[in-house]
Amino acid sequence: MTAPTLLAGPDFRPAGRQDLLDPAEVALAAARLDGRVRHTPLLPFLPGLRLKAEHLQHSGSFKLRGATNAVLALQADRVVTGSSGNHGIALARLARDLGIELTVVLAAGANPDKAALIAALGARTVTVSGGVAERELRAQELAEASGSVLIPSSDHALVVAGQGTVGREVLADCPDVRTLYVPAGGGGLLAGVCLSALDHPVRVVGVEPAKTPRYARSLAAGRPLTLPPSDTVADGLRGQRPGTVTYPVVRDRVDALVAVTDAEILAAAELLARHGVAAEPSGAVAVAGALRHRLTDSPTPAVAVVSGGNTPAALRAATAQLSLTTLHALEEQSS
Ligand SMILES: Cc1ncc(COP(=O)(O)O)c(C=O)c1O
């Protein structure tokens, strides 16, 4: 194992202080991520609607932003997380590069191709028998028992600040954007985008699967609610409750929440594929919301975040490539 090398970076609040979130933290995250994550392009899609292409991000999703920001700031050498897959993949890539010991806890029914890639990257995986709420509890227990740093997939100030760089790039590249569609699972990306857009007149629209409308329900109730486990096709958006860090940020800034059905999510992924954009279902959720909203008159220009491209084909190709690399290394050692 190599020693961690990516530990320098701008100062941040001490680890553990997650209660305060300041928009300046998105700028700090952007400085920390510079040169380590892709500034992804805005792609033309339909009249008045462009795509923020996070399916082209290293690791296949925006999750690399929050994961990298947290790992660099916390200087962790042993990490535990609970993940539906993409955050785990992003952390596993970092862990492999930096020599960090990583355990990823997965919920029952987690995407098997994502789990296989996480394991192929060298992380330990643990699967619980319940949903996301149980997964998060187990991750916390494992972190405490092993003295590891817990880096949650969304409910952490450093993760939110890292994801906020998505919004920061959109506003820099398209300052006249009027509506920004963002998928909401645990809400790390939505909270980050809300933070980056605090002083900008853009309408921020969060899009949730209709099977798990945790933000819409919680905002209506005036407090975070826990929903039952979900089986939505958007496997990255099965989180059962808003986070304690993310909820107030979203509550105070989001302009609207839209719920989309699984059929709409799959139709959006299909339409994206016909335009040459390979999005996984979770990655197509915001586009599904934008397509539904276009029927009403939502202000344009609009941008929808394509948040992930880890389709089964992409995941299997990445896992096969890793296995080949490992095999070659073993052959070279034995020759
Ligand atoms: C591709 C993709 N999009 C969106 C999300 C939701 O992100 P968040 O949990 O930050 O709301 C996830 C979460 O795993 C994801 O993998």
TrEMBL record:
Residues covered by the Tryptophan synthase beta chain-like PALP domain: 37-308
Gene3D superfamilies documented for this protein: 3.40.50.1100
GO BP: isoleucine biosynthetic process; L-serine catabolic process; L-threonine catabolic process
Cofactor(s) the protein needs: pyridoxal 5'-phosphate
Keywords for this protein: Lyase, Pyridoxal phosphate
Pfam families referenced in this protein's UniProt entry, alphabetically: PALP
GO molecular function, one term: pyridoxal phosphate binding
InterPro entries: Ser/Thr_Dehydratase, Ser/Thr_deHydtase_PyrdxlP-BS, TrpB-like_PALP, TrpB-like_PALP_sf
Protein name listed in UniProt: Threonine dehydratase
Species: Streptacidiphilus jiangxiensis
